[in-house]
Amino acid sequence: MISYLTQIAICEPVLETVKQTLSRSDDAEVRRKAGYIPTKESVLRAVTLYPDLDTKEKLKNFIIEHVLSSVRITPAQKEHLDMNGLRTS
Q1: What is the pLDDT along the chain (89 residues), one digit of tens a residue?
Q2: Which residue from 26, 36, 38, 59 has the fewest beta carbons nearer than 10 Å?
């Protein structure tokens, strides 16, 4: 598992990118969901449940998927999101 300090360093910018991406969406429903993104602490608690997140890339992907799932982004909505270079598997 990646160290907690590294998790924090990765989590903050990924959360900000997801929030900005949702806020810029053409879909009003998606923009509204930007206000419901889980806190950094909540995301980091979820990360602790998955010790196999042993690379930065896996951690980034997990955070993105966790946030999008938490705010209930549908697969159709997800197709139209541009995560500024972050992968959405």
Answers
A1: 899 999 999 999 999 999 999 999 889 999 999 999 999 999 999 999 999 999 999 999 999 999 999 999 998 888 888 765 555 54
A2: 26
DSSP 8-state secondary structure symbol assigned to residue 35: G
Ranges assigned E (strand) in the chain:
none
Cα–Cα distance between 49 and 74 in angstroms, integer?
24
Report the b/e string of 70-88 with b at 16+ CB within 10 A.
Answer: ebebeeebeeebebeebee
Q: Would you state the structure tokens that stand for residue 46, as one six-digit string?
A: 């979820």
CA distance readout (Å), 43 to 25, 27, 36, 79, 82: 22, 25, 13, 23, 21
d(CA 73, CA 13) in angstroms, rounded, equals 20
